[in-house]
Amino acid sequence: MVERSGLQVFDQLAEFVEQKALPGTGLDPETFWNGLAEILEKFVPENQALLAKRDELQRQLDEWHTAHPGPVTDMAAYRDFLAEIGYLLPEPAPFSISTANVDPEIATMAGPQLVVPALNERFVLNAANARWGSLYDAFYGTDALDAPAARPGGYDKARGAAVIARVRAFLDATIPGWERAISGDEHPALAGRKDGGVLFRHNGLHIEIVIDPQSPVGRTDPLGIADVILESALTTIVDLEDSVAVVDGEDLVHGYSNWLGLMRGELTATFEKAGQTRERKLAEDRHWTAPDGTGFTLPGRSVLFVRNVGHLMTTPAVRLPDDKEAPLGLLDAVLTSLCAVHDLKQLGRLRNSRAGSIYIVKPKQHGPEEVAFSNRLFDAVEDLLSLERNTIKMGLMDEERRTSANLAACIAAARGRVVFINTGFLDRTGDEMHTAMQAGPMIRKAAMKGSDWLQAYEDRNVRIGLACGLSGKAQIGKGMWAAPDMMAAMLEQKIAHPRSGANTAWVPSPTAATLHAMHYHDVDVFEIQKRLADEAAPDLSRLLTIPVAEPGRNWSDEEVREELENNCQGILGYVVRWIDQGIGCSKVPDIHDVGQMEDRATLRISSQHIANWLHHGVCTREQVEDAFARMAAKVDAQNAGDPSYRKLSPDGPAWQAAHALIFEGISQPSGYTEPLLHAFRLKVKAQA
């Protein structure tokens, strides 16, 4: 550790800031460290006060639900109670956000969004480059195509023919008469031409038809078409939160370095494939000639957000003058913005935001006061970095119950910089369960998806967003499709997201982004938003209906066993990689051996559900321990092919962490998993 302006700073972090992040920005080290120290001095006490308020509200909720167990029978009295304790706040007067200088990918276009862990360079580059994706490849390599699987041993012509027929059907439905433009004629959807390609525009998205009669595929096509490329992931969230294991200064420097590399357009990744060393870098922009003969350029990459952490966690990478750890959310705000100044000042090779904005997703905020706190923090960061007010844009995640219940007031608290709201089933359900832990046993996890409160939550998010003027200025998003190998099911089901009026939704891979992009050609989201604009949001009482089981509900022993095994398997499968290997997001086999993209939100809902059933006597500790041991054996078998995997054992840190998440679940702040995960991961790193 080194001393900087009264702070103790991890030496590699200080070196990164002074030698890589500051040069070119106009800030000298002394000014920067003094400014960071002032921000911490000002905001740490308020950060602590907001966390204390969370605890106090939870105490009052626990007392109320203990006195009024079971489903809420008097909703009016319940709402009065929530208002009395300051949990439920008055609705703001009608307003429209004033967010300005927003890139069109966010404000006026509708399309898929990727979320990628910041610590994996190859994944980050793949996601950023997923702005354009081959529809031929997406169908050829997934179950999205209803045809026999490709035969091994090279290109399968029969499979290829089925792909071409499927893509032709998409083109015929989306751009009738597209063949005319291939032959050189005009077409109303024609956007551009270049040697070897024709470009169309539909619903604001581009479709490129690659012409190469000499290619293996083009030789078989009467028009010489070698591929069809869709504009796919318009935006990508580079994640420093739920999908990464960032527990110390070393991890932070890795994440911040990758973000700086992206903001400068210089990040690369070297990897081995097919016995060869390969390098990946960010894609270049794409150049076209419009029908009138003028040239134009399309971005080659997604517009990048960075997701900071919430208000809860602290970091040993920076210690305050009283030797306490600094809140990581405060440090993230300063350092990710500092890195993004390189983009604003065009210090690197490529641009991210052509509109001159910094995009930060701020998760796990509980209510308008916490959003207002983040807004003031961003004000202070802008002042430190000499940025105009509201240069830093805020992505507001609607994933906590107090935020959902006060969503319009949350948006109002940052109305000059809100650029994104979205819903997330897993974290939102985890908070639902923790908030009402004392109300009674929760319904089974699978039943949550069909519950009325959840539908009200999804619908209210869109309608409140529209009422607050987000259409044409910001994204209204929906959550993740978590099964990357189930693309046929995704194509069938995820069209519900654009149909709901959301102009983006999360997907687990570049391939999924390309397939999901088809939905935004099938659905004109902005027309749907116009139709929904005058519809009232579902009544707040529906949102506040707690998903506890009816009194007297008894699940069978088999049902209890199934629920416990499902939850325990998911917890262990995720935690063992997080603790032992530092992998914060990966494709984890579920209890049915289906790969699911898991992050900490999955862990939160599963651990809180078991904690709730234990607390209310639905299951016993012995039943949980039994399920735990059986599922540990299953997780070991599922990971048998991983040479870096360490088997689960009761004396191992991964087992102990998973165990604590369940049996200490009620005492965890807001049911979050981070405090326990960080503690056990730090032990593993210390031992190594």
From TrEMBL:
Segments forming domain Malate synthase C-terminal: 559-665
Segments forming domain Malate synthase N-terminal: 14-74
Any one GO cellular component localisation term in the record: cytosol
Binding site for glyoxylate: R307, E399, G424, F425, L426, D427
UniProt-listed Enzyme Commission number(s): 2.3.3.9
Post-translational modification Cysteine sulfenic acid (-SOH), affected residues: C585
Subunit structure: Monomer.
Protein name, entry field: Malate synthase G
Species of the source: Novosphingobium malaysiense
Gene, per the UniProt record: glcB
